[in-house]
Write a structure and sequence with these properties.
five-stranded antiparallel beta sheet, eight-stranded parallel beta barrel, Isoamylase 1, chloroplastic-like, Ig-like_fold, alpha/beta, transit peptide, chloroplast
Length: 784
Amino acid sequence: MDAIKCSSSFLHRTKLNTLFSNYTLPKIPTPNFKRIFRPISISAKDRRSSEAENVAVVEKPLKSERFFVSDGLPSPFGATVRADGGVNFSVYSANSVSATICLISLSDLRQNKVTEEIQLDPSRNRTGHVWHVFLKGNFKDMLYGYRFDGKFSPEDGHYYDSSNILLDPYAKAIISRDEFGVLGPDENCWPQMACMVPTLDEEFDWEGDMHLKLPQKDLVIYEMHVRGFTRHESSKIEFPGTYQGVAEKLDHLKELGINCIELMPCHEFNELEYYSYNTILGDHRVNFWGYSTMGFFSPMIRYSSPSSRNFAGRAINEFKILVKEAHKRGIEVIMDVVLNHTAEGNEKGPIFSFRGVDNSVYYMLAPKGEFYNYSGCGNTFNCNHPVVRQFIVDCLRYWVTEMHVDGFRFDLGSIMSRSSSLWDATNVYGADVEGDLLTTGTPVCCPPVIDMISNDPILRGVKLIAEAWDAGGLYQVGMFPHWGIWSEWNGKFRDVVRQFIKGTDGFSGAFAECLCGSPNLYQGGRKPWNSINFVCAHDGFTLGDLVTYNNKDNLANGEENNDGENHNYSWNCGEEGDFASTSVKRLRKRQMRNFFVSLMVSQGVPMIYMGDEYGHTKGGNNNTYCHDNYLNYFRWDKKEEADSDFFRFCRLLIKFRDECESLGLNDFPTAKRLQWHGVAPEVPDWSEISRFVAFSLVDSVKREIYVAFNTSHLATLVSLPNRPGYRWEPFVDTSKPSPYDCITPDLPEREAAMKQYRHFLDANMYPMLSYSSIILLLSPVDGQ
């Protein structure tokens, strides 16, 4: 399997040998959670050793010393506050035989104690497969969780154990440790967690904020990590590494020209999931990226400011502030969601929510209870199960309606196209379908969960972006079920552009397809903006490392350099590593500019990775999932150094793209607008050895633009298209040093710089150095 087509969420795992999970999670300390009240029921242990029927026994009336208790309602799921201040609790658990709600004060949580337990009566508190209860009282600093009892039989897919206190899958916030990367009591990586109880005093003032609804064709996406963006000391802000920190630094993105940020996972996750000492860097490895979700409704609490971490509602508000401040600047917010697996791993993993609530429903299981591992992370979310797909839709709706996010990028999105456990047509469609004999995990042409999302009256109007592959070998770039609205991370764009720009033969035609928005992939039912174009992303080399390293250097990850992609299509420009000759460093800067030009002049939606605008380096590490340090931190000091160099170039290219009517078309360009050229006008060279691609594009604002790429090691003299009454003038030449790589009207000594080209342009020609690209603009001849 070509791992460059796979997500960050599994590149660090052991190589996938089977569809079932085959790795062992790090040893996880078992919380010693003391209970004040023991629920009276048939325990999982007794059930395993007897023939007792699955009937819960309730020996005392439903009552509480602290709360008024009544039956409650089966919907909506989760904890819902009512107008009178009471809270309705509702949770789906089809295969459990008893349920207990555990109420835990914040102080008791720190001491591993339960404040009160209320066992539910199945005759009053259960409707169908839903447990529910209504409580009214003083919920200040109160949290909750559940115990479920039932059959403990992994071979049948059940993991019920009433000793576990479980998170509500619909919990709006999850509380555990206070500080990112710091161990819990007794150095526990998995201390007890609990869910926030909502209250009426959590109203947020949106100040009239609404979704921006920017046309997708006009987006410039910036993939970023909340903690990494401001954690470095050079950010010089009060709360580095937080939602507030990002909000404070949004003006940098506005200056760059970004109008959409794609946040790497912000759902609650445990960064200590594989906590271990790093002997190479002298710190500890953690789950920095966050592709291992614990709660899909809860924002990552430890991305909030320190003063709010004990109050989950404030953490929610800080995420809302980030969204509101982004919208004020005309920037949309897209979330990277990991709805393909959870942090519970395989059968050796922790049990904190979904597995203990109803394992056989939430996970894709084989007939003997094994976990299918299409995610490469131990389990696979059972996305097309009726209950799970409704959960997914509810979750996405919540983030759109309550948190005002503008869209989603679906990590390993192809998993959502696989059939669920116990798949059958009657279960999914309500009727038999002839020939429907699909096994678990088989890709289906009309996946119910994608159908539901695509036709949902709320979700259909937001940005939907699929990472159209998974760890099981399913690769759907250009073929993802789309309903005319889904976009895709275009991994083929990345691979082709990398190879053409570094001068690999045989890619001139494929590169031209990329420049046109990949019509070979998306023509027929979709638009150019359905292609999310990128050269670099969080997994893989940064742009600076792409031109500095031929080989990855992932030793600091602790996996003997076996993790991460081996085929990066990178080129070090002649010398490996940061220490190189002046001529090599000049060529590297030129190549970085070439990559950025290719991204900005291509049809489709460009996406750049955080830090690439100043040339951030990770030292050749192409899989920095486990590093909470300088490798993943945005360097604000380096950005300031690049203000007059590469950052300036990126800012001006993004501005140019925004000004051009012809860059970011709603439809694929045709011959009426686009002409291909070679070193001679209208004579393109699509041969296997061609390393030259040029085109001109009619533009209603700029009249016409001419773009050329010379990725040969030889310079060439280009003949330009003849336009009577007009002359071509240089705007970008990546072979020139800054600031002459981008000639703007306000550039000092602009006239002197233009004179250097005059004798060539008067002859309708232009000299191009090796490994360079140019953008020329059409200007009227004086007096015309």
